[in-house]
Structures are given as structure tokens and as C-alpha cells.
Specification:
The protein has about 250 residues and is an alpha+beta fold. It has 2 domains: about 150 residues, no CATH class; about 80 residues, no CATH class. It has 5 helices and 13 strands. It is flat, with a radius of gyration of 24 Å.
Amino acid sequence: MQIADELRRSGRRVFLSVGPHDRPARQYRGRDFCWWLGVLGRWDAETPPQGAEHVTIAVSGARGGHTVDFRALAADGIELVGLTASYDDGVLRFAPDLATNIALGDAKYLELLRAADAYVERNGLDLPEEPAAHVLGPDPEGVADPRLELDLAGAGVTSIVWATGFATDYSWLEVDAFDEHGRPDQRRGVSSEPGVYFLGLPWLSRRGSSFIWGVWHDARYVADHIATQRGYLAYGTGDRPGAAPTAWKN
């Protein structure tokens, strides 16, 4: 979203393929969305909602940070389309899910605002109200009946930016630490292969596992596990975990 916005501001014609997403308010009632997700326990959610294992959190840090609003992007001249489905012979095709994706993103946005308001009231916090944040504008033109295909040459499209994240490749790791689907066989970062650990994976133990403000939970767990295992291995040798080996003489 931020890339599309910047390209449009530079004068380019932009088509934005919109998939399932979560778009929290960048700031609300004077607090950053990271703070709200923290106090509301969202970073510590241990089980992803059905179908939301890899849903993007759409936020922007551009120009000081602001809430992503697809209506505003459309009003600025960006043409919104649904999730990219296929490509064939110079033509991109899109799923007919644009309205659904925007509506679900709006629902999550409003739900978080209501949860934040309830938290403020429950805890007696003196935070300024923001009634305007709850007001959504009308759907932009074309949302109900978006284009389902795009002839790239005909539209003058010469560049495509795939902002789809990344996939993992563990083929270089020659260890028995993966399941039949090639995914890490692990519990909270501790794999089935002794001495092999994972950190930073989505939903490793909670929603925040792949974020800098959540990975520390798993890092601490893995570090404690390593220390405990070293303690077991040192049992009966007279050595303490972390200490230099002791020389024994008969």
C-alpha cells in the first residue's frame, strides 16, 4: 500500500491488487497501534483466526505514519482490483473479491477501535476521544464491480511490484527437523533435531512471534531450554552449565 501510494504521488498510473488484510489504526486516541495490540493481548494470541495465518497487517510509516485507507488511495487515483489470480499471454486476472476484502478489513479496523474504547473506559484512562475514526466513507467507484483482468500492454503497464512477502527455503539445512510438508517440526522454536532451533517464524507461539516486539518471548523460551539441556548434560560431571570443564584425577 505504501509503495503504491508513493508511486502514485510520483505521477505514475497505479493498479493495486488488494487481498485479505488487517488494517489497524496507525494511531488511536493518542497511542500507537503496537501499544493497543499489546494492552489488548492481541500480540499474545496463541491461535490464528481461521484462514488468517498469513493475513497482512496493512500499516504505513510514511510521512510520520498514518492509517491505511483504501478509499483514500482510490480517491487519489489508484485503481483497486481484487487478489491477483493468474497471468496468461500478457493479461493479469483478478479474483472477484475486492469488495469482500475491503469489507473484512473495515470490520477488523472497527472492532479494534471498539475494543480500545472499552479498554479506556474499563481502566479509567484519560485519552482523547476520536469519534471521526469510526466513520468510514463510501466505497470508491469500481469496488462493487471491479475489473477482473488487465491487458498489461494495452494499459501501458511496464513494471509490476510483487509485495507479497517471502517464502522460506530450508533445503540447505541437512537436518531431520522438518515435517512431510517441509515445515519446521518444532514446538515454540525447539525442533525435533537436537541443537536446532527456530525463531521469528509467523505464529511460532503467538501472533507477535514474527515481530521485533514479540520475538523475545520465544527467544527467552529457547534460551531457557538450551540452559536446561546443558544442565542435564552436565549432571554427574561436576560441571556447571557455562563453566569450564573440571579436570578429575583418581
